[in-house]
Structures are given as structure tokens and as C-alpha cells.
Amino acid sequence: MLPDGSLSTCGLANKMLAPEENAGQQCVTTRDALFDACCYKQCSLCDGQGIKWWVEFDLPVEVEVRRNVQEDEGATSTEPNAQDESAEEENEDEITTCSSIDSSLYLDFVEADTQECIDIKYQFTSECCYSYPTYPCGLCQQDGTSLTLLWANEVEYDGKSVSCGVVDNILNAVEQGGTTCDSARENYFEDCCFDKCSLCESGAQLAWDFVVDFEQSTKTCGDLEAIFAAEEVESSSKECNSAKEDYENLCCFTPPIVPCNVCSEYVRWDETVVFEGAETTCRQATTLLKRIESESEECSASMDVSFFTVVPLLALHELMTTIERPSPKLAATNYATFAVAILCLTGTPS
């Protein structure tokens, strides 16, 4: 129950407090009233450590933990429990992993320092948790550079068929330069890693959301990079060289110290303008201008009226006469701000 006497869920109360200052009276009062009822210290399988989410167990954790609890309580009945048999039948096709065990602690609201938490951690921590290495091993790290991981490719690892992504996660838990790391790289590097084509040379930045024409459709520069990964386009391939010739100048740039920002607040994305001798949209033009320095001559030259849609004073006056003031007491200056704000909302934040 909230301090004002109304009923609420803990989740809703938490959302209601989000706009309040942490030290504000409403926040402090509500927290004091609801803290014990709504808050608890979560049981975590691997406190302050990494979790080996890929490790699997033969039995569903619900059944295994239940059996341990029965043994601890001194259960002597040898008769099969109908509920246990039903649970085993329902879960026999499910795979229990360290990840699912940790998730169940959250979903079941298991509190830290309870006997249930202690029992589960005692049973699984040694197999599920690891201390973060100082220099984690990466499967696709070679000669100081990182190649692209073919996450979904399947390989045989420790007698099981697993994805290269899982192998990479397993190696992240061990130190670079160790026997396990070096051996895995030797065995799986060719099947799991490749030198992906990249549009931008080292030091240049990719304009992820810049739109370009690609094979009779429009794609962003980020889409092209994703295509290179999905189709395993090698950096040394003719396809890569051709793509770089076509798109490197459009998609790559050296980040300026202070970008040229033509529009201080809003950009009319779809407004047509002439930029560098060609017709384009304000979105494309302003995006390209953000790649140059604000103090450059090119940036200064771009501050032209052709980049803005000027609203005639008469049109502004007509619009204001059609708007009902939110309050008779609203000051004239605030009213003008209110009307202009509505005009601005026809644009999109830059």
C-alpha cells in the first residue's frame, strides 16, 4: 500500500518513483513504506564471477535440487512421488545449463543467504563459475588483430557438436597464451574465423546509418557490413575490392573534432535540396556535413537559406489563431513559444 492509502504493485510503484529525485520527500517516504515488502537481495549463482552458461547437466535442475532437499530433510519414503515423476517426464527433453539455473533463481525470487540459495550454490558453483582472466583468450585473435567469428558454424568440441560462438565463449574464460587457448586456436581457427571485408580502413569511422544504393535497392552502410559477414566476403576478394571502390568514400570518414551541424535542433529529413551539385535530401546532406569540421569553409558555405524551410510570418499568425491557449493565464511569451514548438515538431531531431 502506498503512503496515500492506495493499492499498487511493487513494479508500478517503482515506475511512479522514477521521475522523482532520489532524496526527494516522495521518494524517501514511499521507499520507507514499501522497501521491506517490495525489495530483497537476489541469490546469484556466481557472485562477482563469470558464468559458464554453456555447461550442461544430465538432470533438470528442478528435479535434482528437489531430491537434494528431500535428502537433507531426511525423507525416508522409497515410494515414487507422482508429482516428481510428472515433472521428470515433462522436463526430460529440456537441457539444464548453468544459465537456466541462474535464471531460475531470479524467476523464483530466491533470496540470498537462504538455505535454498546456499544449497544450489554449493551444488553448482564449482562447475558453473569462473574468475575473470586478466587477458581473456579469443578464438579469432591472431597476431594482435581480431578476425571475424563465424558464430553459427558447427564444430566438434570435447565430443559434442557446438557452434564456434560457444567455443569462443568457453575460451573467454581462460587466459590468453595458455595451453587450452593455443590448442583451440590451432584446431578451430580455420573453421571459425575469417578476415572479413570492411569498407573502412583502420582509423576511419563507418557511417552506419548512411543510405546508399545497392543492387537495385537501398541499404545502409551498416547493412553492407552485415552482408559481408553473412556471405563471408574475404578482405582480399574481388568482391570486397569492388565494394570499397563504390562505397568507401560514401560510408567512411575521419571523425571531426567539432562536427558541422547545420540545424541546431530539427532537420526536415525529406526536404529536397541541392548539395554539391546534386539533388538530395536534407537528411543525406546534413549527415555528410557532420563529417567535416564546424570551422571549415565548406561548413560555413552550407549555412544557406536553401537548407531551411522558412515559415512566412502570415502563416505563423494564421496557425496561432487556430490554436486554443492551454490556459487563459498563459503569458504571451509562453504562448508564442508554445506555437513555435508545435511548428518545430514537424521536423525531426538532428
How does this structure look, described?
This protein is of the alpha+beta class and 350 residues long. It has 14 helices and 18 strands. Among the domains are: 54 residues, no CATH class; 49 residues, no CATH class; 42 residues, no CATH class; 37 residues, no CATH class. The strands form nine sheets. The chain has a two-stranded antiparallel sheet. A two-stranded antiparallel sheet has the order 2-3. A two-stranded antiparallel ribbon has the order 5-6. Helix 1 runs antiparallel to helix 2 and helix 7 runs antiparallel to helix 8. The C terminus is likely disordered.
Question: Helices, strands, pairings?
Answer:
Layout: H1 10-17, H2 25-38, E1 50-51, E2 56-57, H3 61-72, H4 82-91, E3 96-97, H5 98-107, H6 115-128, E4 129-130, E5 141-142, E6 145-146, E7 148-149, E8 154-157, E9 160-163, H7 164-171, H8 179-192, E10 193-194, E11 205-206, E12 211-214, E13 217-220, H9 221-230, H10 238-251, E14 252-253, E15 266-267, E16 272-275, E17 278-281, H11 282-289, H12 297-302, H13 313-321, H14 332-344, E18 348-349
Antiparallel strand pairs: 1-4, 2-3, 5-6, 7-10, 8-9, 11-14, 12-13, 15-18, 16-17
Q: Largest sheet, described in full?
A: 2 strands, antiparallel
By helix and strand content, what is the structural category? alpha+beta
Number of strands: 18
Level of helix content?
40-55%
Sheet-strand content, in percent, reads 5-15%
| Unreliable stretches covering 5 or more consecutive residues | 305-349
From the N-terminal CA to the C-terminal CA, the straight-line distance is: 44 Å
Number of helices: 14
Mean pLDDT: 79
Oligomer classification: single chain
What is the approximate shape?
flat
**Over all CA atoms, what is the radius of gyration?**
30 Å
Provide the spatial order of strands within the biggest beta sheet.
Answer: 1-4
